[in-house]
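Board notes (copied after class):
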Amino acid sequence: KVDLLTGEADFAFSLLGKWKDPNIKGDLKISNASLSLKGNYPRISSINGHAYIDEDKFIVEKLTGRIGGGDINVSGLVHFKGFLIKKFSFESDLNKVTVSLLKDADINLKGSLIYKGTPEAQSINGDIKINSAKYREKIEWKSFLLKTKAKERPKGEVSGFENAELNISIAGDENIYIDNNVTRTSVKVDMALRGTISHPVLFGRLESKDGVFYFRNNEFKILHASADFADPNRLNPVIEILAETDKAGYRIKLNLDGQIEHFNLTLSSDPPLEEMEILSLLTVGNTGKQTKGLE
């Protein structure tokens, strides 16, 4: 649904024939327009372009605009019968567009998307390359776990656009960072966005082989870390982290695997210590063997 539409338009149309089978011809030029949709959608500004109608086809030759600080170019075709849309297809190219999908997470991207279908069934397909991204949100585990719980879908009428099926690949291997209270690392992204506009689902993998992981105020060097997304109902990745640190002459290795709600964390050391001794070393700086007197 359109929230705001402003700009200049020059148009000329002719309508001949019968109402049920009209012969429509026309030309449309748009200048300096802006478009905002209701909901959490980015505003498109500086829209300029040309389109025309030729009998049963509405053809968008070229439409350019600015969105998220970057450029968008759109072309497309709408087939109609009478005054009813039968099918359509639009292709868009994005360049240096910045979006904020999560709190404290800015993503700059480029790529192409194809939006096509009928009034009853629609789809959005495409490929997105991440130019740069940074996730800075501080994670409080209790609230984070609540966010990952499966949410009941709101009841009510869903528009055709919100029901559009998604099949968008998202990839990037440079200038992608996580920098918060849990980790500071660069990330390689190989993901797919599926589901629908109203209920998107992420599949794929995030992977890292450098940076640091924080545990009990200790910095662990990441040897390998990954998060695999396969849950069709919510963000519930399977996480694997292998990291190490040096403390008081001991090399300590941390291995974490599992899902956010249920994971296993094991600690080992060289020279070998019991896990409780390693925890004591990380927490208070000694293994506990030196303790004298009552405990």
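Comment from the instructor: The helical segments are 141-148, 275-284. The chain has a mean pLDDT of 88.
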